[in-house]
């Protein structure tokens, strides 16, 4: 099965910042930060490659970013615009395969196995997609080509920006052997630390442990690490056709502004959608909150995680953050809704708690 799978991972380069630079030529070639402000409030949502040269990264505090690069330019995120560009990009992908699994606005897996016979042909298609994205949208992206999702994702990161990397099956093991453990999918800061404490610094170090040991250290994710260190990842590319989202909403008998009551209602909704996920054995990467104010104005707020979530606590954590960006609690509201989208099959995914402390 492995030998004739051709999986692409395509990832836009510094997406939000690149969109800003494309739309505003005066930002071109400058250290640009999307999110936060020059007074040092907020966090960096994305930054241009010019800003990265100063050590600026997404999720860094704006205060720190200003210290690293005092002349950096801050712009406010324009989510709607990024979505618009994202749709354009995904439309291009669709010409090459019906099997597309977006991970966020700016990256997706494509399974092109059914109409490709060799890794070389798959690589040519990846190159063609990169060229189409550049000419039709105006942005660069990087692509990884391999025989499974994990390796395709590792590959797309290897020659960023504007690069293409192919990892054929006979090169996978030697590459994984020397791949720093922090580059493994699902290994965040906390897991990386734990790996280091076990003497695991590179892919080859995982091979010293058997599956049972790794499961003991890392829970279910241990089994996943065991396999990917050996280049094994049979997760399918999950296109979302047929199960786009799971959602529920409720209208109140009388409008409310009591935050405790709102919280209680949200929890009931979160429990319902959690049940929906369990029925379908799904996780979701996108959580959307819908709030309708007393005057019938409706707002929606979404957030997208890099790893699917599936528990009521995770859904609530996200929902609470979204709620804070609305006027709920300040003005009366008449409806609340939660929906989950970007659904993926959890039975084939690594668990979500990877980045929680272990002890
Ligand atoms: Mg990207």
From TrEMBL:
* Active-site feature positions: 107
Q: Where is this site: Substrate discrimination?
A: 16
Recorded GO cellular component terms are: cytosol
EC numbers, comma separated = 2.7.7.7
User: Which keywords, in A-to-Z order, does the entry hold?
Assistant: Cytoplasm, DNA damage, DNA repair, DNA replication, DNA-binding, DNA-directed DNA polymerase, Magnesium, Metal-binding, Mutator protein, Nucleotidyltransferase, Transferase
PANTHER family recorded:
DNA POLYMERASE KAPPA, DNA REPAIR POLYMERASE UMUC / TRANSFERASE FAMILY MEMBER
Q: What is this protein called?
A: DNA polymerase IV
What is the scientific name of the source organism?
Desulfocapsa sulfexigens (strain DSM 10523 / SB164P1)
């Amino acid at each position: 099965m492995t030998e004739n799978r051709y999986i692409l991972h395509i990832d836009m380069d510094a997406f939000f910042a690149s969109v800003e630079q494309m739309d505003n030529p005066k930002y071109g070639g400058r250290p640009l930060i999307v999110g936060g402000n020059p007074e040092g409030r907020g966090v960096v949502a994305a930054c241009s490659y010019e800003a990265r040269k100063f050590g600026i990264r997404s999720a860094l505090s704006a205060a720190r970013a200003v210290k690293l690069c005092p002349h950096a330019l801050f712009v406010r995120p324009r989510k709607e615009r990024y979505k618009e560009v994202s749709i354009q990009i995904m439309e291009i992908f669709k010409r090459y395969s019906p099997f597309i699994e977006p991970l966020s606005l700016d990256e997706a897996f494509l399974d092109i196995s059914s109409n490709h016979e060799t890794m070389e042909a798959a690589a040519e298609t990846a190159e063609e997609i990169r060229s189409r994205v550049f000419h039709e949208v105006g942005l660069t992206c990087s692509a990884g080509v391999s025989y499974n999702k994990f390796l395709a994702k590792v590959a797309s990161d290897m020659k960023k920006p504007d690069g293409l990397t192919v990892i054929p099956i006979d090169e996978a093991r030697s590459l994984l052997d020397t791949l720093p453990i922090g580059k493994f999918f699902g290994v965040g800061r906390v897991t990386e630390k734990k790996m280091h404490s076990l003497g695991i610094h590179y892919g080859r170090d995982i091979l010293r442990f058997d599956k049972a040991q790794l499961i003991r250290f890392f829970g279910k994710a241990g089994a996943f690490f065991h396999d990917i260190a050996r280049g094994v990842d049979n997760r399918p590319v999950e296109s979302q056709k047929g199960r786009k989202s799971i959602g529920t909403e409720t209208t109140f008998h009388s409008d409310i502004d009591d935050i405790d009551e709102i919280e209680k209602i949200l929890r009931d909704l979160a429990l319902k959608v959690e049940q929906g996920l369990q029925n379908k054995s799904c996780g979701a990467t996108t959580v959307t909150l819908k709030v309708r104010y007393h005057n019938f104005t409706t707002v929606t707020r979404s957030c997208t995680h890099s790893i699917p979530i599936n528990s009521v606590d995770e859904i609530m954590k996200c929902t609470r953050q979204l709620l804070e960006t609305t006027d709920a609690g300040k003005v009366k509201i008449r409806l609340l809704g939660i929906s989950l989208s970007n659904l993926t099959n959890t039975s084939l995914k690594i668990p979500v708690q990877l980045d929680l402390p272990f002890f």
